[in-house]
Amino acid sequence: MESYKEGINSIEVTVDKSHIVTIGERLYGESIELIRELINNAYDADAAEVKVSIKDDSIIVEDNGLGMDFDGLRQYFNIGSTLKRDSPKSLKFCRDRIGEFGIGKFATLSACLCFEVWTKKGDFQARVTFDKQEWQGSKDKWHIPLEIQKSDPGLGDGTKIILKGVNKRFDLSDIEKRIIEAVPIKAPNFSVYLNGKKIIARFIPGHRIPFLEGTEYGIVCGEIIISSPLEQDISNAGIECKVKQVTIAKDFFGLEKLLKNIAQIKGEVNADFLPITSDRTGFIKDTPQYRKFLEVMQRVIERAKPVLTELSERKENRRTRKTLSDVLEKIKNALMLNLDFCPEGLIPIGEGVSDTGQAGFIPESKTTRDIKEKEEGVLKPLQRKKRQKRPQIKKLTPTAVIKRLKVGQQGVSCCIDHFGPDEPECATEGTIIYINRDHPLYQKAAKKKDTYELHIARLVTQEICLMKDCRNLRQAFQRQSKLLRDALAGPITSA
């Protein structure tokens, strides 16, 4: 590399005009990206502090990084330089350098008429002026004016970029949002100020699902954040896919199919090994690294599905628990009025009178029975009890709602859960009543409070009456009709 010599007053741009136009004005179509690029250049130069000043017709980006000497300035204006690829770590803080292609500074051509680069490194201090109008009037080869200044010992090392004649207006909130997304502001020893205000990463409240996985290319880590169901701003939705702490793109990875409100889906994933496009707006997808990345994210989403389902149904489950509790209390009261409808296990012990059949019967203890048999001189041979078939227990999801109806010693448990739209709307195993919330009738009834309560009451009373006597279906349905009437409409009383 040629060092600075006396008499040199320009820096040759080593790419022709057509390439610069393509790079500066087409590749960086959104002029807001130039601010991101200038800040990231300061990060690569080991700046601890970057100050961005936005005015009506000018933008200033000033840093206290290592600065540039003459060779550094030549590298700066040399598109396609391999310096950052050959030295991926910064000198002072050993940062993973973000820049790779050396074309970001030409994004300024889409937003201003002139930009100046002032820099100081040790005893070297200089200013380079890139005037767009002069450049457009020149031939393909062009030398950027270089002004060597006397080094000021009172100034620290660093670089200041001044954009003059800015022809576009910037919204400060948009700039702040882009800096948060596309600049490593969470990195240690690094701060960014916008018009005097320090930019701080947003804290997003919500349920966090962290993940960390290793691959043969590198680590994939981050977190999925499910924010409040009241969130409506979809502009911030999506999982930020970051390379070297910079957001390259956003994706939902199929989560939009699991949550009705996509505005709730946020988070970030870091994968520094992913190859990116030259304009840093996307990934090169036809690569083994990107395919491995997608494979890892699919595993992460599969592990997160149960949690997401539970979170999405948390509000609905509060309503379901209340409705089920209310219904079971009403059915309990109806059973107290119809004790002969109670199946075994739901019979209130010792609460009835002599004409209530089994309801008022107090069973004898084993000791009392033995004494009575001895007094009568009758010793019955021991009978082997018939082994009862253990009921099959269904596997429940984390969102299952379970309540217990207890009238006698055992009671009945009611479980509302997902069993699939093609499965029966209800079933009974032992003393457990399962209600299928995926059934189309359940889905329709759940839309209104009155129909929802009636639907659950119908299914629970149906199963209780079938427990009493499943052989006489006509009688079971008649009993169910009366239980429903007494539970929801109240018993009929004579005037």
Structural account:
With 495 residues, this protein is an alpha+beta fold. It has 3 domains: 10-198, Heat Shock Protein 90 (2-Layer Sandwich); 207-312, Ribosomal Protein S5, domain 2, CATH 3.30.230; 317-489, no CATH class. It has 12 helices and 18 strands. The protein has a 9-stranded mixed β-sheet with strand order 1-6-5-4-7-3-2-8-9. β12 and β13 (246-251) form a beta hairpin.
Entry summary:
The chain has 495 residues and is α+β, with helices and mostly antiparallel strands. It has helices at 17-27, 33-44, 70-76, 83-86, 132-137, 172-182, 288-312, 314-337, 366-375, 440-445, 449-468, 473-489, and strands at 10-12, 49-54, 58-63, 114-121, 124-131, 143-149, 158-164, 191-194, 197-198, 207-214, 219-226, 239-243, 246-251, 265-270, 401-405, 412-417, 426-429, 432-436. Helix 8 packs across helix 11, helix 8 packs across helix 12 (473-489) and helix 11 (449-468) packs across helix 12.
Give structural attributes.
about 500 residues; alpha+beta; Heat Shock Protein 90; Ribosomal Protein S5, domain 2; nine-stranded mixed β-sheet; five-stranded mixed β-sheet
Determine the CATH topology of the largest domain. Answer: Heat Shock Protein 90
Mean pLDDT: 81
Largest sheet: 9 strands, mixed
CATH class of the largest domain: Alpha Beta
Give the % helix: 25-40%
What value does the Rg take, in angstroms?
A: 37 Å
Tally the helices: what do you get? 12
Number of strand segments: 18
Order of helices and strands: EHHEEHHEEHEEHEEEEEEEHHHEEEEHHH
The CATH architecture name of the largest domain reads 2-Layer Sandwich
Strand arrangement in the largest pleated sheet: 1-6-5-4-7-3-2-8-9
Can you identify the CATH superfamily of the largest domain? Histidine kinase-like ATPase, C-terminal domain
